[in-house]
Description:
- The protein is mainly alpha-helical.
- The protein has a domain of 86 residues.
- The protein has 13 helices and five strands.
- A three-stranded antiparallel beta sheet has the order 1-2-3, with no helix packed on it.
- A hairpin with a 4-residue loop joins strand 1 and strand 2.
- It is flat.
- It starts with a helix and ends in a 23-residue tail after the last helix.
- The C terminus is likely disordered.
- One iron/sulfur cluster (SF4) binds next to helix 12.
Amino acid sequence: MTPFQHKRVLYQGSFFILxxxxxxxxxxxxxxxxxxxxxxxxxxxxxxxxxxAGRIDNRQMTLNILLRVILPILLLAVGFLGIAWRWGRVxxxxxxxxxxxxxxxxxxxxxxxxxxxxxxxxPGPPYHPDGTPAPSDRRYWxxxxxxxxxxxxxxxxxxxxxxxxxxxxxxxxFALTLTRNQALFIGVATILLFLEFTFxxxxxxxxxxxxxxxxxxxxxxxxxxxxxxxxxxxxxxxxGCASFCDHVCPMRLKPRNIxxxxxxxxxxxxxxxxxxxxxxxxxxxxxxxxxxxxxALQADGSQGLLVSEPAERKPKTPPDLP
Length: 322
Ligand code: SF4
Ligand code: SF4
């Protein structure tokens, strides 16, 4: 793993822990019993009770709605989509607790089957971009499946703590005294998430996640946004490579494509790291790099440039075996 990917995993791991712990420390949760949000330990209410009791008038109630609902949502949306507009789906690739599960299970499935996803047509090359062997072993299914189940259970419990007091949920869980509804929620959510993590994890990110979709839409409106760029004029240098950029992509994209075919790119940088490793002896370096502004304008394909997808080549031997 490159230092860049180490850094990304650190961000992802930290955010995953934050995702699990935020309700426990009352950083953020919606308490269904009290009927309001809790933000940094403080109740975030609209003042509806005060309004109904006549303690605040219409003007104050309108102001509460503006300041405590509309303004925060607008500020969050503008900040979040502004980042996506400039840098793409960096939230997905660097923070999202679902995407870290996607990547972890992808790696285990690759070790078990040679493919990152059950839906891949063919296994990837049996070696890594640096030429070291990457054998597959079916026994890894015995790790991949329980991992998917554990992640699904963790997610289900965490989701419940965003709705009910975490002390009650964890207390009941450890004492095996969950209420019927709590057990039902955790059971059903675990099953659904397990199926999703096993069969459709990256498909959910690509086609079903609203957070990802809105980031992608914001990103696509900015033709100068940061994007993975391919030096197509050097395509000949790909001849000795087993298309590692395609094989490492957790979203199962083809990173040498034009931007609109990379709609779901999460800016994880794994394709560039793979290429840099493959081309480490090449004085011209990687063929894939992040580009922005004027370079990005040319790479988005809307001017009729860079539209053909390079053919996949398969060398008989690994490149540059150490
Ligand atoms: S195209 Fe590259 S940067 Fe984008 S998701 Fe795939 S591997 Fe990550
Ligand atoms: S861009 Fe790099 S990783 Fe992708 S096929 Fe060409 S040499 Fe291989």
